[in-house]
Each structure stands twice: as structure tokens, then as C-alpha cells.
Amino acid sequence: MRDLHQVASEAREASYPLAFSSxxxxxxxxxxxxxxxxxxxxEIFSANQADLQRSEENELPGPLLHRLKFDQAKLEQVILGLxxxxxIPDPLGKTTLSTEITPGLDLYRVSCPIGVVGVIFESxxxxxxxxxxxCIKSGNAVLLKGGSEAHDTNVILCTCIQKALQISGLPENGxxxxxxxxxxxxxxxxxxxxxxxxxxxxxxxVRYIMDNSRIPVLGHSDGLCHVYIDxxxxxxxxxxxxxxxxxxxxxxxxxxxxxxxxxxxxxxxxPELYKALLSxxxxxxxxxxxxxxxxxxxxxxxxxxxxxxxxxxxxxxVSSLQEAVSHINHFGSHHTDAIITQNIDTAxxxxxxxxSAGVYWNVSTRxxxxxxxxxGAEVGIATGKIHARGPMGLEGLTTYKYKLLGSGQTMDDxxxxxxxxxxxxxxxxxxxxxxxE
Amino acid sequence: MRDLHQVASEAREASYPLAFSSxxxxxxxxxxxxxxxxxxxxEIFSANQADLQRSEENELPGPLLHRLKFDQAKLEQVILGLxxxxxIPDPLGKTTLSTEITPGLDLYRVSCPIGVVGVIFESxxxxxxxxxxxCIKSGNAVLLKGGSEAHDTNVILCTCIQKALQISGLPENGxxxxxxxxxxxxxxxxxxxxxxxxxxxxxxxVRYIMDNSRIPVLGHSDGLCHVYIDxxxxxxxxxxxxxxxxxxxxxxxxxxxxxxxxxxxxxxxxPELYKALLSxxxxxxxxxxxxxxxxxxxxxxxxxxxxxxxxxxxxxxVSSLQEAVSHINHFGSHHTDAIITQNIDTAxxxxxxxxSAGVYWNVSTRxxxxxxxxxGAEVGIATGKIHARGPMGLEGLTTYKYKLLGSGQTMDDxxxxxxxxxxxxxxxxxxxxxxxE
Lengths: 437, 437
Hints:
2 copies of one chain form a homodimer.
Chain A: H1 4-20, H2 23-39, H3 41-57, H4 62-68, H5 72-87, E1 95-102, E2 105-113, E3 116-120, H6 125-137, E4 141-145, H7 151-167, E5 175-178, H8 181-187, E6 196-199, H9 203-211, E7 225-229, H10 235-247, E8 256-262, H11 266-279, E9 283-286, H12 288-291, E10 297-298, E11 312-318, H13 321-331, E12 336-340, H14 344-353, E13 358-363, E14 380-382, E15 390-392, E16 398-409, H15 411-415, E17 424-425
Parallel strand pairs in A: 3-4, 3-6, 4-5, 7-8, 7-12, 8-11, 9-10, 9-11, 12-13
Antiparallel strand pairs in A: 1-2, 1-17, 2-16, 14-15
Helix pairs in contact in A: 2-5, 2-7, 3-7, 5-6, 6-7, 10-11
């Protein structure tokens, strides 16, 4: 195993020129990555074949094998992503606050990279390129750890990215690959050099990371999403959105796991909804009121806390909006929850009271995604409250610094009342933001 | 000891009505706190006398006794702060992004409270009112732990605040006081109910918190601030700002600890600066080049990493801006660092390359403070990169949620290309933001 203290320290060193680099140079690196990946397509596919063969021998399940595949179609998709990312405005150097503190002393808050980020992701090798390119665009150095099934593909993809950084005049240590669990454990100790860990994985895995590192962690533990059908819902829309939220893709974090329905509308909606869900192969489990309306199985208290990620849905009747909100805040995972209603006041109360990263009105929960939101891509979906919440794109990979531009002001002068605070909003861009190089 | 799981759960329950409450009600609570504190002035002063007497018997050092004092002047200052906070615009319900995802489907990012915050602070009892009022204004519930010396004063202040919450129609459990270290340790386990811990205290204390909790922690460990005198500095300004940064208040986190000076300007500045520092009682320690110019003591490598919080200053010569930047990024604490120069290009390079929460040009480091920045007050100063950086005021106590307002859109329709993403910036405020009650 490599010395992770050394690896992290090199990433920190690389983070400074990356943070200071021009938008032009960072976009050039993205362009060069696309070119180098295309030039090395044959080698990448052959490395991926080795991964696939080894994984088949290890009897990796079919859906995971499918995600592991990196072929011409995937390459084209990755290159499309790299090209589109170049057109997105620079997330760095943006002035988000400007205030005159006292005449001749101006404060600017300006966006800048976080620094060094550690990302642990699943078996898709295309995720490596996506995450690395988001980090480069936002001026961050990154340590990447992918699924071990994708080892060979990840190694060659990372080599291509490092070559692109180098020929673009950026430090190749800005993107580095970790290749074992021991390296991940060692990385968690490097709080001096690493500013943020983003684990994409199971609930237990995210908690393991949090318990074993002083480094801040952004991740989502669960995706236990709800749809609440209000008594003033349009029945046809309620059925359409419930079926889409549950079945459009059952294995993702933004799929619905529990349906709440107002008791007054349940008789008019549940029988037809049940038929629609059955036809999609969904097993329905309900509380006693639900079971009086449809011939479904029994939902126990445990069901309200279960993320099935499968063709199973728990259904509960509620007697009020307040009961629905309380249930969601208590049992939910603060990911994405939707209300279906024609009443804007009821909708507003739901949206303002439900304590989740995404609160939806008359739309499927499946829309919770960084690409859908227009962020280009996402490096993860955060369900905590700190820093970034929901789909985390380029903006989530930035922080800010306060620049105070003076002309010799001392605190002693202030205390002696030679001048006083004016606190006038300036609405001006930071005059020192230009990155020279 | 109370059951902290129960205490935290009550804080969580209180956080929902607080988050949903109108600006008017939260400002009313601040007004009522001011009134109730004034009505109970005699009882507060008498509790404070008990704290002072006990602390004198325990031989608490003079400066700490001074901070512990809560008298008429402190009360007036606290009431002034409460009144001024009422005039600050509501930090909640602000739309910070609005995008049309596809016709009839609009995305809004809207500011909202973090939820439940735990703050551990030092011996000043007035800090309790300041922190509690910032939390109420921003719709957060808060668990407070002050210094044990201030126990009696804190208890009565917290009782006054709870009474004010109650008569304002807000949950009194929104502000609760912890009174022992055991309760703090127990609080750290409540990651289900507490969203953020803000420890104000020593480096070792902040690290202890980070090592013993899964809850995100925002705090600053050190304030090792630098002033760099560039070769194009104005000598008189360089001396004035260095003296102010070092001596205006030596015991605070934004005081200078290390002075860096360009070797070309050192002969013209150091002798006079040394005299000025000596006259303020500062002990100067220098590297060998410094010692050739002034008769000071020897700075060892350890000095570059030492936060003196005292009348001591380490001085080092550098041969370039780059050397100054590297020294600061390596030895600094990422709090606040200043350059003194007449050259805007040099200044820009310094401000863009130094990796600190505050980067200053021609101004004393002593300006790093939430009140100075115009935030009304601060709940702490963060030196990490995640969530808030620098002085953390009301905005640092908020997060956001994504509201997606649709008209029946399903992901299935998108996949079948019935409509596609438009991603048009709307520049519109969230139509569901109004808090009814």
C-alpha cells in the first residue's frame, strides 16, 4: 500500500495551482481528457473486458455487470458530458456579497474551490470521469476510490485524465486513484490535507466513514421518499405520479417507498391505483384502513422505515395534512417527498413544513437529480443540512473566502471613533478576482 | 443528569414550528426577550453576583472574571443587540435559484433553518443571549452549554428567553440549557436529532468534539494569522497595520502571530517597527536575517506554528511573494492573513492564492468579525471549508431546500421524449414561500 499521508500531501500541493488556474486552462483540461479517452478507446475497452470477465467469474449480479460495462456508447456519453461541462459558466471567482465596511474599506465574498476532496463511488467506471471532471472544472484536487470490480478500467481512465492535466499545464496529482480499502481507511486519517469526503454507497458505509474520520462527510444515507395524496388531489394525476414515482426505476434513491393518502380520497383513488401498481408488478402493503379498500398485504411499523429499492410499496391513510407531514419528518430520510393536490395553500404548507432536501408539488419524486435540475451533473445527493443539500453539482464543490480591501485602516482608529462602520451594500464584483497565471 | 435523548428530541419537535413561524413572530420573541430581561434585571444581577463570588473563591483569573460580569452596562448592550437584530431582514424564505425545468415545472431553491444546533461557548453570559437570539431569528432550535463559572447567570437568562418564546407563541423548548460536561458528551451522540455542533473553545476541545460525534462540527481550531509586508509596501502603513494587528488585542483569534517581510524592504522597515513593537511591550523573535537587522530573540521552527495569544511576535524574511504564500498555507490556520503592498497585481496574487477564510489587503487582521462585516453578530468563526467560512452569522445558520412545482410531470414522459428539459433561469421568487400560521 502507498503512503496515503504522502498521496494526500501531494493532492494538497496540487490543489493550489488548480485553485489559482484560469477558467480557460481548466476547460482545456476537460477538452484534452475527451481527446485522450478517444485516442485510447481500444485500451480502455480491453481493460474493461478484463474487469467484466473477472466479475463474471466472481458471479457479479447481472445489473451490476451492466453498470460495469464501458463500451463505445458509454465513451460517447462520457465525451458528451465533458464537452457540455466546458460550456457551463466558471463556478470560481463569483462575488456573492460586497459591502463597504467604512469609506475606503470594502468587503467581498468570492467563490473558490474547497481544496482536496475524497470521493468513494460505486462500480460504474464512467462515474470516475464524471466526478474527476466536476472537480477539475471547480478547481479541486480529488482522490478517487471506485468499485474493485472496475479496477482495470479505472486505472486506465485515471491515467488518461492525469495525462490530460499534464499537457494542459495543470498538476497531474490533482486527480489520483486509490485502489484498496486499506487506502480508503488511511485516507480517512488525513484531515490535515483533505477537506471533504463524499461517500456514495450504503447507509452502513456512510456511517462507517463518519465514525472513522474527522474530515467533514457529505452523503446521503437513505432515500426513503414519500408521495402524499391530499384530499383535494386530482385522482388521475395522483395515480399517474404514484406509479411513476414507484416504478419508473425501483432501485434508485429517488423512488417512492411509502405512499400516504388522505382518508377522504382513499376510496376514490386506491382501487384504481392498486390495479395500476399490480399491473407493474408491485406488491402493496397497507394499514388496516387501506386493507378495507384493497386486498393488499399488511404493513407493519417496520415498513414505514424500510427503503425497499424493489417492487414493494407501503401505503398508509392519514386524516390530515399535519399527520402526513409528521409521518414524513419522523420516518423519512429527508431526501425527496411529494404532495399531490390542487390546493396551493395545502401545497405551500406541505412544502414549507416537510424537512427534506427536495419538496415536490404535483410531480414525480424521480426528478431529484443534478442533471435534471440543470447542474450539468452531480457528484452526489446530500440529505444532511450542512453545506450542500440535494443534488450536489459544481456549486457544492465550492466554498468562498472573504476579501477585505483597505487603505491602511486599523482597529485602533475604529475604537477611537476616527471613522465608523457604514455597511453599505456595493453590488460590485471583486476587483482582484482576475486569475493571471 | 437529564435524558439527553429526550432533551434533543424535544428540541427537534420545537424546531418544526420555529422553522415554520413568521418573521413577525420571531421578531416579537426577540422584543419580548429584551423586555423580560429588563424586568428581571435585579434577579439576573444577583445570580451573576453569586457566580462572581464563587469564581473569585475559585481564584478565576482577572480577565475571565471581567468577562463573566453581567451588570447594567452588559444588559443594555444585550438589549441593544436584540433590538438591532429585529431590524435585520429575514434570512428565511429567500429564493436563491429559480429555473424552469420544462414548461409547467419550476424549480426553486429557498433558504430555511438548519434545524437543531448545539452551541458550546465560553464564560461570557451575554454570549448566551446573543447565540439564542441569532438562532431564534433564523428559526433554529438550540441547545446551549456555557461555562460552568456562569451557571447561575445562564440559568436565569435561559429561563427569561424561554418565557419570551412562550408568550410569543413559539415553543419554549426551542432554547434549552445544558449544565454539565456529561450532558455535552451525551448530546454528541444525538445525531438523529441534532444537525450541527458549534464549539467555541480551544483547539484540543474542538478536536475532542470532532472525534466523538457523527454530527457535523463547525468551528475554528486556531487563529494563527499572518501579516506579509511586501517589498512594495508603504513603510509607514506597514508599521501601523503590523502594530495594530499584533497589539490592539493580543488575546483574540484575529491577532497577528507571525510577521513575514520581504528581504528587500526589511532594512527600511524592521528597525522602526521593532521600536514601535517594543514600546507596546511586544517580545520579538526573528530568523537569522531578521536578527542581523534588529537585536531580537531567535525564532525556531516551532514558532511558525505557535498561536501565542500574547505580547510575542515571530518575524521571518522571505525572498518572494510565493515564499510568503507557501509559508502561510503551510503554517497558517486558514483564519485571516493580510498583505501590505501598493501593487494591486501582487495583492491580487496574494488574495487569490492564500487559502484562508479572510484574505486582507492593506488593513489590520483585527477586522475579522461578524459584527464588523455587517452580519449583526456572529455565532462563531469557521476556518474549515464546508458550509460557512469566516464569521458565521444568520446566513450560516440557514440551509436551503429545493421546491419543485409541477403540473403532473412523470419521468416516464421525459424518457419517452414527450417533453424535454429547457433549464431557463426564471429570476422569480418561490410562490409558495409565504408562511401562514
